[in-house]
Amino acid sequence: MALNKNFGGISRVFNNQNYRYYWVGGATSILGFWLSKLALGLLTWQLTHSPLWLGVIGFSATFPTAIFSPFSGAIADRYGLRKIALFAISASAIISFVIGIFTYFDAMTIELLAILVLIQGVTLAFDLPSRQALVYYAVPKDDLSSAIALNTTTFHLGAFIGPALFALLNPFFGISFAFFFNSFTFLVFAGALMAMELKPSSPRDAGGPTILADMIEGIRYTYVHPGIFAVLAITLVSHLFIRPYIDLLPAFADAVFNAGENGFAMLAGASGLGSFAGGVWLSIRGRNEGLTRILCLGIFGSALFLIIFASTKSYFLGLICMGALGFCLITMAVSSQSLIQNSVDSTKRARVISLSTGIAVGFPAVGALVLGLFSDFFGVQGPTLVAGLFCLIYSGWSVRRLLSQSSSLELNLK
Question: Sign of the CA dihedral 263, 269, 273, 274?
């Protein structure tokens, strides 16, 4: 299979059979994820009509990744990335099917839903690091940046297709269909991973270090590696204070812009469109050189546009800021993942990526709760403005350290 070379890095990654398997399975799974995410929110609202429960369910779905990521990474490095990914994906498929069954027979309660979602959040902590680490083995190292960018772009494309498909199918099949479909897409992705031709991993010495020792080694390696630590240090604050903006958009649309539900959809759509554009650009660009500088610009840009967004009452300017913010955040996310994947020791890949994933997935959940709490007292604009200012100041302080590590992060040393 050969693609037009005018598509740059996209052409090169799709010319790898392993990546084609990986992408088809991942794209199918992403579609199931978005259908399930929308169905989960609607089911929670129908059961409780409580914004608090919406927050609790959302928090339960993602925060376990931050808690269990060091352990899940150590497990994956010890027993194999694909093996752990298949186990976690299969468990997620079962949980989605159970949610679908209880929903179909009108037997679901909000307490049971919270428990099931929390368990699925734990499986996600094992799934995501292994899944992301496998990308390294699906493409040549020179094409790693394009592969990661294309994966991220596909995820945001699912944010457009998923809601449209849910709106089309839900009136005919009901909410439970989304959970059944999500379960099926997990199995499709599992099949795709099994079809990939990967070199067998070397068996670990039975008398070697314990899982706890592996966890500590992974954390220590991340801390002492100057490049990887610099990447995580500068992105951590962005995950905590900038990325939660998406959870506050309904409040901005209603209380600040007086734009209602359609206004919220337009703001979210503008953000998604910016993310899609940034992901496509980096996919075509397809090289590691310059990613450190792009990461720094993405951090600065996202903080700046969030500050402007939180300061204005102009809906039109808000839409522009959302598009720019989405573009900046996706360039930050893709650059940071690419730089870490490019420079990490392969024997510690899952452990380091699990820490990165735990920060990227878990910290926005914490930030959303904190900003939401302060917004209840001070309104949504003030806390968001302070968060953007803090991130801008912190980035200015930490960017010099990151740029000093650009050579070791960007060069193909391994």
Answer: positive
- Range of the structural domain that residue 301 is part of: 8-194+211-410
Indicate whether 384 belongs to any domain: yes
Amino acid at 276: F
DSSP assignment letter at 377: H
Tokens 């994966």 — which residue? 151
Residue 22 lies in a domain: yes
Q: How many CB atoms lie within 10 A of CB 107?
A: 9
Exposure letters 351-381 (e unless 16+ CB within 10 A, then b): bbbbbbbbbbbbbbbbbbbebbebbeeeebb
Predicted local distance difference test score (pLDDT) of residue 414 = 43
What angle is formed at CA 304 by the lines to CA 298 and CA 308, rounded to 5 degrees? 140
Question: pLDDT tens-digit profile of 148-200?
Answer: 878 877 876 776 677 667 778 888 888 999 999 999 999 999 999 999 988 76
Q: Which of 71, 65, 67, 346 is nearest to 216 (CA)?
A: 71
Whose tokens are 């790898």? That residue is 16
DSSP 6: G
Q: Of 246, 235, 247, which Cα lies nearest the Cα of 338? A: 235
Cα(140)–Cα(410) distance, rounded to whole angstroms? 15
279-327 pLDDT, tens per residue?
A: 888 888 877 788 899 999 999 999 999 999 999 999 999 999 999 998 9
| Residues of the chain scoring pLDDT < 50 | 1-2, 203, 413-414
Residue 12 counted as domain residue = yes
Q: Which amino acid is at 406?
A: S
- Report phi then psi at 197, rounded to 5: -95, 100
Tally of CA atoms within 13 A in the half-sphere of 280 that contains its CB: 9
CATH of the domain at 382: 1.20.1250.20
- The whole-angstrom distance between residue 189's C-alpha and the CA centroid of its chain comes to 17
The number of folded domains in the chain is 1
Considering the domain boundaries, does residue 220 fall inside one? yes
Q: Are the beta carbons of 321 and 304 closer than 8 angstroms?
A: no
Query: Would you state the structure tokens that stand for residue 211, as one six-digit string?
Result: 């899982």
